[in-house]
Amino acid sequence: MTILVMGTIKLGAGEGAKAAKMLADHAAVVRTEDGCEEYSFAFDAADPDLVRVAERWASPEALGAHGQADHQKAFGRALRDHSPSAMSIDAWDGQHWRKLI
């Protein structure tokens, strides 16, 4: 069962440009995880501090393992350096949306 994850991360004013390399590096690592079919970040064209999140996972188990990975936990800690003011990340399992963050 494919799991889709979509969301946004609102960074502090001017933090988007500072976070870009960290986001790209993290996405490259996550794409090597078992079950990761797509993992990307994109900056909103109207707001350079709004990050759009798009992920596709092969199974709920793959998404669960991703959430427990050491590099994912480190990413969450590093993200704090960019003053996120809001995050909304949801997963779709084909029938229901589930709030992740």
UniProtKB/TrEMBL annotation:
Keyword Membrane on entry: no
Molecular function terms, GO-annotated: monooxygenase activity
Coiled coil ranges: none
Keywords for this protein: Monooxygenase, Oxidoreductase
Domain ABM, chain residue ranges per copy: 3-96
The keyword Repressor is assigned to this record: no
Protein's recorded name: Antibiotic biosynthesis monooxygenase
A Pfam cross-reference name: ABM
Organism: Sphingomonas dokdonensis
